[in-house]
Amino acid sequence: MNEQICFKPIGIIHSPFAEISGVLIQPLSAKGIKGTIELITDFTEGLKDINGFSHIILIYYFHLVNKFSLQVVPFMDNELHGIFATRAPSRPNAIGISTVRLISVKQNILHIEEVDIIDETPLLDIKPFYPQFDNRSTDKVGWLKGKEILDGIRSDNRFK
Amino acid sequence: MNEQICFKPIGIIHSPFAEISGVLIQPLSAKGIKGTIELITDFTEGLKDINGFSHIILIYYFHLVNKFSLQVVPFMDNELHGIFATRAPSRPNAIGISTVRLISVKQNILHIEEVDIIDETPLLDIKPFYPQFDNRSTDKVGWLKGKEILDGIRSDNRFK
């Protein structure tokens, strides 16, 4: 269980957010925020048929986060929660996921919207979003109950 | 863009699926399939408040997949698609995601259901599932259109 698992980025995400603070914290609140994915050209063939999807799941590396904390006060709350009960970036493995809107694909460049991701973020994977598989009805949403109104909450430097 | 990004598993997923073939291919079709997560005990503190959530997102390593293909014929179709337009495991970075049902938490052990994951899979991250952030209405679902009925489709050895 102690072995390292290593990946190489498949591309880079470009966005208007240059710094770790001031980033909109969910795609939901990032409507109209545009970005691009620059896929390594060796992988372009892997994009066949992706333009059929309006939404894609991005898996990426929180490259500006240098430490992890097992308990954090997330941007959306004033209480301490276990890191695995939050979406905060300062995780043991600094992996982020965002479902974004896919606008167009030209060769190895994907134009996307609803981008809550920092500029120059290393991209690890792209998957198609399929609501029949990916949407869920939940019984319980813990401390996030009633917190769906983000009202432009942005990141600060607490996880730097 | 060529640097390696390395992670260590935060735990191991246990499930009834011992082999790469015969696995139910989405949580949707794995209702009633039980599993456990054995978190490394160093990280137990990170689980605080996770028991408030009925669903959690698991990010894990497809540890039995040894090669990648840029285009594949997925389990659910007979046509070739770009790997990034599919959920097939033979990806450039062999990262999987599943949203599963969280049943209970005892110390570092999480009991889960709707498990479409192979036994002994290295776990990279756990995030809470929050439908207000994670559910989407899509305009287009590409080649997956009308394929929501899985009818017990299971994996075979094609991506081994």
Overview of this structure, please?
The structure is a homodimer of 160-residue chains. Chain A is mainly β and 160 residues long. Chain A has one domain: YaeB-like (Elongation Factor Tu (Ef-tu), domain 3, Beta Barrel), CATH 2.40.30.70. Chain A is 2% helix and 31% strand. Chain A contains 1 helix and 9 strands, in the order βββββββββα. In chain A, the strands form 2 sheets. In chain A, strands 2-3-8-7-4-9 form a 6-stranded antiparallel barrel. In chain A, strands 5-6 form a two-stranded antiparallel sheet. The longest helix of chain A is centred in the C-terminal third of the chain and has 4 residues. The first copy, chain A, is globular, with a radius of gyration of 16 Å. The two termini of chain A are 28 Å apart. The mean pLDDT of chain A is 95.
SSE inventory with pairings:
The structure is a homodimer of 160-residue chains.
Chain A: E1 5-7, E2 11-14, E3 34-39, E4 55-61, E5 71-72, E6 81-82, E7 95-106, E8 109-113, E9 121-128, H1 131-134
Antiparallel strand pairs in A: 2-3, 2-9, 3-8, 4-7, 4-9, 5-6, 7-8
